[in-house]
């Protein structure tokens, strides 16, 4: 995999997580207190850095074959979950992901919650809401960076892709003070689910000791094949749903 492909894959995957985290922070800041929301965001970033710093070096001690088998299996789990939801949304069997609706729900819940602070935090609800959102989505970003970067032996490029994604999403989001509803997140999730599934299949197979014909070039066949299969399932489900409605 070239550095540009690695960068683009990590960028798109991390951008999806960044949009979800940003929606939560914006809801906490606009409906409660920006100061407490930003405090929660900062605390989450510190906790993430400590977690990655503690667990990161241990990954380097795992043999490459075992690492690829474990990471490939995890990527298959995550990728197939994302792809399943994307297929259901594309076929009309699941509601499309709506950042504006999610933002409205978060705002309503924040406005209904009680007020009160602890220590230097004036609004504990805004703090904890931002902290949990950023920390959980940040863990997924860290997982994407570590797995892709370690397996390709180019962690700096993976980190650069993640940082660029977070910076772009955060910059646009705070500039307009609104959720990024115009971002085609469902399309992005379909693409990311396809990539995670394809790489999971590729790396888990290599982790068992098998070799793909052509090495990394096999990804040029695996990725389109996974996308075509998922698109085919979406079309079949859509046709089945239309036939059922007509009947």
Number of helices: 8
Q: What number of structural domains do the residues give?
A: 1
Beta-strand content estimate: under 5%
> How many runs of DSSP E, i.e. beta strands?
0
Largest sheet: none
Order of helices and strands: HHHHHHHH
Q: What's the gist of this structure?
A:
The protein has 247 residues and is mainly alpha-helical. The protein contains 8 helices and no strands. Residues 243-247 have low confidence and may be disordered.
Descriptors:
mainly alpha; 8 helices; 247 residues; disordered C terminus
Tell me what you see in this structure:
Keywords: Membrane, Transmembrane, Transmembrane helix. The chain crosses the membrane at residues 37-59, 66-83, 155-176, 188-205, 217-237. The protein has 247 residues and is mainly alpha-helical. The chain has one domain (3-240). It is 80% helix and 0% strand. It contains eight helices and no strands. The chain is globular, with a radius of gyration of 20 Å. The N and C termini lie far apart (48 Å). Mean pLDDT is 78; it is low at 243-247.
Give the arrangement of secondary structure elements:
Blueprint: H1 3-31, H2 34-59, H3 64-90, H4 99-112, H5 124-151, H6 155-176, H7 185-207, H8 219-246
Helix pairs in contact: 1-2, 1-4, 1-5, 1-6, 1-7, 2-5, 3-7, 3-8, 5-6, 7-8
């Amino acid at each position: 995999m070239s550095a540009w492909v690695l960068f683009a894959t990590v960028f798109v995957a991390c951008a999806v997580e960044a949009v979800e985290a940003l929606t939560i922070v914006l809801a906490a800041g606009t409906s409660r207190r920006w100061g407490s929301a930003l405090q929660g965001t900062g605390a989450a970033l510190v906790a993430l850095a400590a977690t990655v710093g503690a667990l990161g070096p241990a990954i380097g001690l795992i043999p490459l074959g075992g690492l690829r088998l474990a990471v490939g299996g995890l990527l298959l789990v995550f990728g197939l979950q994302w792809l399943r939801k994307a297929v259901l949304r594309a076929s009309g069997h699941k509601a499309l992901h709506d950042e504006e609706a999610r933002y409205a729900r978060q705002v309503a819940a924040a406005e209904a919650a009680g007020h009160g602070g602890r220590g230097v935090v004036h609004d504990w609800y805004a703090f904890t809401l931002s902290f949990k959102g950023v920390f959980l989505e940040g863990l997924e970003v860290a997982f994407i960076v570590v797995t892709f970067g370690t397996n390709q032996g180019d962690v700096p490029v993976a980190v650069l892709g993640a940082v660029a994604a977070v910076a772009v999403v955060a910059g646009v989001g705070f500039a307009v003070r609104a959720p990024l509803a115009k971002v085609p997140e469902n399309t992005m999730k379909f693409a990311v689910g396809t990539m995670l599934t394809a790489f999971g299949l590729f790396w888990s197979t290599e982790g068992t000791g098998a070799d793909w014909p052509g090495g990394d070039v096999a990804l040029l066949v695996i990725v389109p094949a996974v996308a075509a299969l998922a698109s085919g399932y979406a079309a079949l489900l859509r046709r089945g749903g239309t036939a059922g409605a007509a009947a």
